[in-house]
Amino acid sequence: MNADIALWLTQDGITSGAIYALLALALLLVFAVTRVIFVPQGEFLAYAALSLGWLQQGKVPGTVWLVLAAALLVALLEAREALRRKEARRLPRIALLYVGAPLALVAATTWAAPRSLGFAAQAALVVAIVVPLGPLVYRIVYRPIAHASVLVLFIISMAVHYALVGIGLLLFGAEGLRTNAIADTKFDWGVLSVSAQSLWVIGASVACMLGLWLFFERSLAGKALRAAAINRVGSLLVGIPIEFSGRLAFALAAGIGAVSGVLISPITTIYYDTGLMFGLKGFVGAILGGMGSYPLAALGALLLGLLESFSSFWASSYKETIVFTVIIPVLLWRSLVSRHPVAEDEEE
Questions:
Q1: Taking a C-beta distance cutoff of 8 angstroms, is the pair 27, 279 a contact?
Q2: Among 290, 315, 316, which Cα is nearest to 303's?
Q3: CA distance 134 to 130
Q4: Of 209, 148, 190, which is closest to residue 347 (Cα–Cα)?
Q5: DSSP E strand boundaries for 82-224
Q6: Is 36 helix (H, G, I), strand (E, B) or coil?
Q7: How far apart are CA 19 and CA 11, in angstroms?
Q8: In angstroms, what CA-CA distances link 252 with 25, 100, 115, 227, 301?
Q9: Contact assessment for residue 249 and residue 187, using Cβ atoms and an 8 Å cutoff
Q10: Which structural domains are found in the chain, ordered by start?
Q11: Distance (Å, whole) CA 90 – CA 98
Q12: What is the DSSP string of 63-91?
């Protein structure tokens, strides 16, 4: 290896690491707020990428029908709960939120699909389709078992992952898709030829991280989410509902997954089951960062991207093995230095 090859590998590693960093932040956010190791995080990425591919082909993506079906199910659950509590005044709001809004989304997608809108409009529509899946999944699956142990929540997450992968196969088929590039321009910096697509990935990832920082530091909802992540019982005592925190965390995770899918789809061919590998690498990045700090999680994911890039050069056949083996010494070290057991059944 010479310096030129090292620069090329570093560029690829930073581009991949930027995506892993976003997924690591989403996984850490969901875990901190809800204690859920959200294995299906990568499915949001795959759904977004495949939905964008279908829109660029002039077809209505199946995810919009999934959103409609899930929203109707939630509408039934919420209506039953409202009637059981004798809160019939909530029914119009439930109908508007879980019936009217999804139908409007279906109408907008059906109108936009054959019209070949620009990349920005299609990406915005994809994000609007995928983001509601987060709160809907939380309401259907995780809210009824919010008090379960971490182990039970993890097992449920595995079940949700397999269900979403199967639904993805049903909606999109087994063939992979790669979307059109955001920009085809290339910039020559010495020996490097940097594509505008890579710069978009890195820039958008940094912008998302900055946006998350501003959200947590400046907004009331962000501060409430931080409080729920630090002390769930204490936040409940001061009037921050756990249900609100869960919905918001899953919405942000779905949004991060959607943005990641839009960014990565012009670079890598995405299949219905691609999301698991991306999600696992984001999880490894969060582990490398200690599963407790957002900046460290982002840094760990960036280092993972670099490790993957250089491993593909030195030992491409063992690239994935090297990437996933690196967490073993980290976990051993954390188990040795940890002084307090993790409370799995925290009372709320």
A1: yes
A2: 290
A3: 8
A4: 148
A5: 186-189, 192-195
A6: coil
A7: 13
A8: 10, 22, 29, 16, 18
A9: no
A10: 3-58+116-337 (1.10.3470)
A11: 12
A12: HHHHHHHHHHHHHHHHHHHHHHTT-GGGH
- If you count DSSP H runs as helices and E runs as strands, how many of each does the chain have, helices first? 16, 2
What is the distance between the alpha carbons of residues 254 and 131, in angstroms, rounded to a whole number? 5
- pTM of structure: 0.85
Residues 6+ apart with CB under 8 A from 292: 28
Residue 180 tokens read as: 């059109």
Which tokens go with 348? Answer: 């709320």
pLDDT (tens, 9 = 90+) of the chain, 348 residues, equals 666 677 778 878 888 888 888 888 888 888 888 888 888 898 999 999 999 999 999 899 999 999 999 999 999 999 998 888 888 888 999 899 999 999 999 999 999 988 888 888 999 999 999 999 999 999 999 988 878 888 898 999 999 999 999 999 999 988 888 888 777 777 666 666 677 777 888 888 888 888 888 887 777 877 777 777 666 667 777 767 777 888 888 999 999 999 988 888 888 889 988 888 888 888 888 887 766 667 777 888 888 888 888 887 777 777 777 777 877 887 777 777 766 544 444 444
Phi-psi region of 35 (alpha: psi -120 to 50; beta: other; left: phi over 0): left
Containing 326, the helix (H) or strand (E) segment is: none
Question: How far apart (Å, rounded) are the C-alpha atoms in residues 44 and 164?
Answer: 9
Distance CA 224, CA 314 (A): 46
Amino acid at position 49, single letter: A
Strands (E), the chain: 186-189, 192-195
